[in-house]
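Hello forum,

I keep getting stuck at the same step: I have a sequence, I want structure tokens, and every attempt I make locally crashes halfway through. Rather than fight my setup again tonight, could one of you with a working pipeline run this one for me? It's a single chain of 631 residues.
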Amino acid sequence: MGYVNKEDLFACRGRISDLTVRGDTFLGLLIYCINIKEWLIPLRQAKADMEGFSLLADKAFGLVEPDARYSKKDWHALFSESWLDKAKTAYLKGRKIPALDTCVTLFWWEKFDSTEHAISFFKKQFPTDIYSAFFYEEENNTLDFSSPIPCAREDLLKLYNGDDGNKAVKIDGGLIKKKASELSGAPFAQTLYAKLEIKHIVNITDFDVCEDFNLSLGSKPSKVISLSSSSSDIEATISKPFLLLAGISGTGKTRFVRKQAEKTGSIEDTYRLTSVRPDWHEPSDLLGYTSRLNDNAEYIVTDVLKFIVKAWIAIKDAGITLQGKEVVGEKNQQRQVKPYWLCLDEMNLAPVEQYFADYLSVLETREWAWQGNDFTYQCDPLLKATVFEAVDKDKLKGELGLIDHDELWDHFVANGISIPFNLIVAGTVNMDETTHGFSRKVIDRALTFDFGEFFPNDFDAFFDATSEPKALSYPVLTDGRNKTELSSTFDKDGTLSVAFLKQINDILENTPFKLAYRALNELLLTVITQKPNNEVELQSVWDDFLMCKVLPRIEGDIDKLTKGDSDNSILEQLSALLSEQLNKIWATKSRQDLFRKSLEDDPLITIECRSKGKLEWMSDQLNNGFTSFWP
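Reply #2:
Ran it on my machine without issues. Output:
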């Protein structure tokens, strides 16, 4: 097998032309989608490679050979909420078009072994939602890939009765004198970029992200914000998918989780509130159990387990593949997958180490591996495959909501149910006489937020808020030794952070608070996810790491917090060290808030050093006989 011949190419384009309205604009939209290199908001806001767009347009519709002199800038697009339906109605007469004919129209110069190979290749060019909205796959298609060489462009020119002055061909066979990739006059780019007819479906701009940039006909961007600046990210990535939100009652911890789900998904689909009961003492309270009443084994399913399966369905629906115990996909697919927020309200009303033991153990087995834009993810099972062997499978499949998801069900039966990579567990925590404390086993596996410090209640802004939390998303790395990712930060090889943590550990030596590899790995992951660009930003990352991972471990009386070789407590020694290591932010209000954004003109929020204030507070508590991190 080889290439499609020119007669078949001509026939495919004729069919696509007949099935579409303003087909050139629609094909321009497809070429844009194929060259999207990053979805900033899944299927709503995208950044595409203009050089790739230009090259594909010229390869597909050019009657002269493509050249290398293309713009290397990005095109940013805002899609309407229902853009798939709008595009299908406007350009496809409300129907779908054949995938194979469209593939040949755009990729006739590619070599394919068979029609199946062509469709498989074409399918990979799009997120699942886009492909399924626009295309259908014909059975028994007679298209043949038998030509030993691709069509010559001069032969295509003759086929369309053109002359040497023609540089591109439209979908209906009309010829134009400009290159297919040109912005002005060439239908595939120019209509998509400049014409009003498509603005209610997609608005494309050279700018990064624009406030008040909407889909009104003829709308213009009113303010430009750079995506490359960490201060203006519309979404921040956390380094671990398990959060402890600690603080006094009524500060908005549960509401925070709910709002996160609203920002990144919806309350109905991507949020689950589970109130922890004081009598929970084993994992079955969260994950369910096998009942053998009346000799009929059946699995009793919990809402939490159903929610975990729902998160898995979202992964599968993005077109990501299950291969054995691994999940395999590429970056565009991963970016379509929304975070699923499980809120464990009043998490420490019961002993966390008991009812949450399985999750705490399995959490550390998560493993991401990236090669370019392709990834694999794997994790040990929360619910082992052996559970499925002795229960009523049909009933369990129905209760888990998997009746229409056979492939995912088969995966669970073979491998068990592991932690989906898009699941974020957030536990709200109050420390009082009715609750349990946390062991270091729990603290080491979580990101702990002193809620009042990270998201303070401002009574003066009760009616008109001046800031809000950034929308958080799940981590996509588990190994902090990724020097490629570190190279784009101020700490280019991680040596600054390693040296910083070694000095912290020197103070914690010979105490139960000493840090291990896990802490170093998570510090490097935090640097990677926050991407500090200068020394102040790096120190801000270190400051938050101390608050989330180091200081929550420290608790006790003066004897426990004083080492034999020093008259000063661990807290005093840490303060002395950090005044040097965090010298750019220690005594000033100069560091950036990494988890909140301003609702006013300046998107930056600057704050005082968090760890300095917390160490002073803990030292004051120690003077009363006992101290801990917890408010």
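The mean pLDDT is 88. If your local run keeps crashing, start a new thread with the error log.
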